[in-house]
């Protein structure tokens, strides 16, 4: 007898809160069983078993006194996959090898969940995280993008700085923030000043993104869930003089407000998500003083808890609906 597929697997880490709890509650209300997997606790606190023999395969997770088989899983929410947090008693020379093997074992486990509905598919997430690909696709669907240079050549950076009239910002190609509150790993978008151009030697070790600095009236976090759009706006005039990145602003200056996007921008976001085949995405847009909307980037596993908390936007409900919806 086949087990009933009434489990939704929530992939996250042990430091996650609020968003994961809201989605779990929303799933429970829909009559399915949320199963939270803190990926950083594998392999220390989580046991995984893949038994493959004689053309038969069985995959099972054990977490404390609870266990599930992959046959029970109807859907997977890919919130976060976190490297293993290993005990200090393990010799340093073995740490990286154990982390690598643990991630490889999890990767094989994900393969056993191909029958499940993913929000979102890991391969599609990985493809969509490439910022250069994002900018190309955004331009293809009609979104306005900043002038952008990605390079490890200091001379090219200096020439670009001149071309954009000395109004330039820089950031990394990959996201390094993993929680609603940010983290010490996050490198914020930063303004490049002329004196910074004399200190570009380390660029040869790490290419970076350089963009024209777009004038801001509002900064928008637009959360897309299976065709629905939820928007929060920040009045950039309240903090723009102090910081170019709202995540470094204060609670007093960064107050989330409701905002309604023009229908033509919503349709372009639909087309963008369709190009990547994604169900979920957290967009960052700028609205300029003239009213133009400029695409900055999308995070396929981005943060949205502050919008649900401050604006009561039902994002967790929308994610739960997307997970339990029949493919």
Helix/strand layout:
Layout: E1 7-12, H1 19-29, E2 33-38, E3 46-53, E4 56-63, E5 66-69, E6 73-78, H2 92-111, E7 117-119, H3 122-128, H4 131-140, E8 148-151, H5 154-163, E9 168-171, E10 190-192, E11 208-212, E12 218-225, E13 228-235, E14 257-258, H6 263-276, E15 280-287, E16 293-299, H7 305-311, H8 315-324
Parallel strand pairs: 1-2, 1-6, 6-7
Antiparallel strand pairs: 3-4, 4-5, 8-11, 9-10, 9-11, 12-13, 12-15, 13-14, 15-16
Helix pairs in contact: 1-8
Walk me through what this model shows.
With 327 residues, this protein is of the alpha+beta class. It has helices at 19-29, 92-111, 122-128, 131-140, 154-163, 263-276, 305-311, 315-324; strands at 7-12, 33-38, 46-53, 56-63, 66-69, 73-78, 117-119, 148-151, 168-171, 190-192, 208-212, 218-225, 228-235, 257-258, 280-287, 293-299. A five-stranded antiparallel beta sheet has the order 14-13-12-15-16, with helices on both faces. A four-stranded parallel beta sheet has the order 2-1-6-7, with helices on one face. The longest helix has 20 residues, at 92-111. Mean pLDDT is 87; it is low at 176-186. Keywords: ATP-binding, Nucleotide-binding. This is MvdC family ATP-grasp ribosomal peptide maturase. InterPro entries: ATP-grasp, ATP-grasp_RimK-type, ATP_grasp_MvdC, MvdD-like_ATPgrasp.
